[in-house]
Amino acid sequence: MDRKTTLEHIKKNSALLNAFLPAERIKSATDEYDGRYRIEIEKSDGTTEGYSLKISSGPDDDDRLDVEYDSLKQISEQISDVAPGFVPKPFARGNLNEPAPGLRFFVYGDYGEQKNKPTFKEYFWKSLNAIHSIQDENGLFGYPRPTYFRGDAQFVEQNSRWEDFFRQSMLYVLDRCQRTLSALQAPHECLENMNTLRELSSTNSIFSTLIGTPESEGKIKPSLVHGNLDTSTVFLNTEEDPDSVSYTIVSPAVFYGHCECKVYPSSLDGYVDSTTEALCPNT
């Protein structure tokens, strides 16, 4: 089903209206990106409210959508006291009856449009640190169910040691890359380089050198990480008043890992080295 047709059906979808009772109607719906729509509902008293909506791309995408809903719910509930609004709270999910019966959706708080790439000020790092302060109660890295990085299942098999988890996740990525290169009939040199990387990643020594003392001293704790953090998943709500800058982060692909895992300085404009200590309270 194309996105234009989906937009037309969103406005008259009874399953969505049931999520907003006593809403009278869905007044408008606009197509954003990555399966996200912005909708405006009209309530029985004539007032309107804005929300965000995500719809799965098909049955194979339903699990990813449910995991994203549960991830948003977990984070928003656990950091609500220290960083309210940093993660939008989801509050309704279900199956659409149109345009395709059974297609999954969830509704969550509206967080506006990404008009400009954000600059990352102190409040952002403190709020991110609140997420990283959530630790797995069993002391395990990974996650108890599959999570998805940009639509693809990522390695989350649980392990009590960060070094082992990191090594296995690297092998998982390299194996997928190798299969893709082979399918594309990549030049022999590319495949040889990939084989070399895989052989290096198969040994513990390289990771022991990279990770070093913190692992051996037990200082690396399994902290909850967003898993998909870059400028496309961070929204700057306002910067009119430097003292009240607020951000919203979306589309999580969570798992428990090193608290600086998957924080990409190169993809976060405005990143300042002096802020890194605030990211990781456990090392």
UniProtKB/TrEMBL annotation:
Pfam families: Fructosamin_kin
InterPro entries the record matches: Fructo-/Ketosamine-3-kinase (IPR016477)
Name of the protein: Protein-ribulosamine 3-kinase
Organism annotation: Pseudallescheria apiosperma (Scedosporium apiospermum)
